[in-house]
Amino acid sequence: MRKFSAVLVCLLLFGTLLAACSGGGSTKVKEEGGSAGNGGGSSNTGQAEEPADDITSRKITIKVHYPLPDETTLRQQEDDKIARFQAKYPNVTIIKDDWAYDVNEIGVKMAANEAPTFYNTWATEANFLVERGWVADITELWNNWEYKDQMNEVLQSQFNVDGKVYGVTQNGYITSTVVNKKLVEDRGITLPALDWTWDDMYDVAKAAADPKKGISGIAPMGKGNEAGWNWTNFLFEAGGDIETVEDGKVKAMFNSEAGVKALDFYKKLRWEANAIPQDWALGWGDAVSSFQQGRTAMVIAGAFDVLQAALNEGGMKPEDVVAYPMPAAEKGGKHYGILGGNYLVINPNATKDEQEMAFRYITFDYFTDEALKSVEDTIQARKAEGKYFVPTPLEYFSDDSEYAAKVKAIYEKYDNVYKYDPELFNLLEGKPEAQFGTQDYYATMSNVVQESFSKKGTDSKKQLDAAAKFVQENYFDKIEQK
């Protein structure tokens, strides 16, 4: 775990820079079919001209990770990137593949040789994918890349396993609490300081809730793996952890005193404060939508996603919303929030040429002037539409890099870039997600959260002991440590 400072306030929540780039040119692009391919190295290294028989002289096909159909803006940005990439590498045929990583589908994709040349995944998946051989070792490509030392070390380290590199970070986040300031103050509630506690969260949630009008004080996620993910922040804040590794074996440890304390707090919000939604079975999208629509005073997530929805889809104003760190369990405690992120990894079944070209594609817009121009163009376009640009969480580049300073300078030029309270970044404390069986643990804890919200008077220790036993026997005991 590591504390994040406020050296670059605007960078903490800056999310779609990588895809948001402008340019021109286009050549052969296929929507589907064909073989997965790849390619190599950095696209902006300034190296000497390569020999005639190098990778740029060979016909290569790569199947690239492509945004989902409803992500029209991201698709336009990716199309632009494809055009610019193929202008530089006319020997490459690109196939678009909008498959989104699913832990239940990746094995089938690999077995059928249908996985893209590179695909997106999450910080939790590194060891899972490495152990099963579903991700390529890109250490050599990484070491030959000129920008490797300017990358965000904390994020990148999540996909460095046993001294080898298996993925390239896109961006990251520290889980936060976003508060509907207007809703809270309209009910006569004084907001606490950003250095707040569980007691402060409880008091605000209880006072802001208006069940008769369908307004909750807080909307913790209550279904899907995200329910376990939301709760785990409180486990961390109480001083607990998910697992430990002893003698090469993964051991569950969330059924601790800290776990009981965190689960009891959830029950207080539900049964004493009556502060959560009456229909509490909210997934990630449901909870964010509830905030966007003004139906809850607080939601727990990466702040970018919530603010983006609230400001540009919900019609709220910057002064209406405020991003808080997660609350400390008690005064003086740590404001732990889960440190997560998004990564691009390369298919080990691809040829060496395909893997190298995939790496070049992944890093094509990293550290470029074109990317900076695209950020500024996006901010200007949002301004013309009467919308706001919300920087996303931790970016792929180090916050003390020269490139980060250039991004910050662009932000400071515009009044429609959302500004975070500088104090936020002095308090945020990111704690990495567990690296073994994390999604299985989240799913199991989601069941515990649902039971706690649906049945009054449950015994937290018994619930957690049963959950830990289940996770241990069905998942952790099956993990082989090398």
- Name the average pLDDT: 88
CATH topology of the largest domain: D-Maltodextrin-Binding Protein, domain 2
Gyration radius, in Å: 23 Å
Q: Based on the coordinates given, report the CATH architecture of the largest domain.
A: 3-Layer(aba) Sandwich
Task: Report the uncertain regions.
Answer: 1-28, 31-48
Describe the structure.
InterPro entries: Bact_solute-bd_prot1, SBP. The protein is of the alpha+beta class and 482 residues long. Strands 1, 5, 8, 14 and 15 form a five-stranded mixed beta sheet that branches. Strands 2-4-3 form a three-stranded parallel beta sheet. Strands 12-9-13 form a three-stranded antiparallel beta sheet. The protein has helices at residues 72-88, 106-111, 126-132, 139-143, 153-156, 181-186, 198-208, 225-237, 257-272, 284-292, 303-312, 352-362, 369-384, 402-411, 422-427, 438-454, 460-474; strands at 2-3, 29-30, 60-65, 92-97, 118-122, 160-161, 164-165, 168-174, 176-180, 243-246, 249-252, 298-301, 321-325, 336-346, 429-432. The chain has two domains: 13-172 and 341-375, Periplasmic binding protein-like II (D-Maltodextrin-Binding Protein, domain 2); 176-338 and 433-478, Periplasmic binding protein-like II (D-Maltodextrin-Binding Protein, domain 2). It is globular and about 70 Å long. It contains 17 helices and 15 strands. α10 crosses α11 (303-312). 37% of the residues lie in helices and 14% in strands.
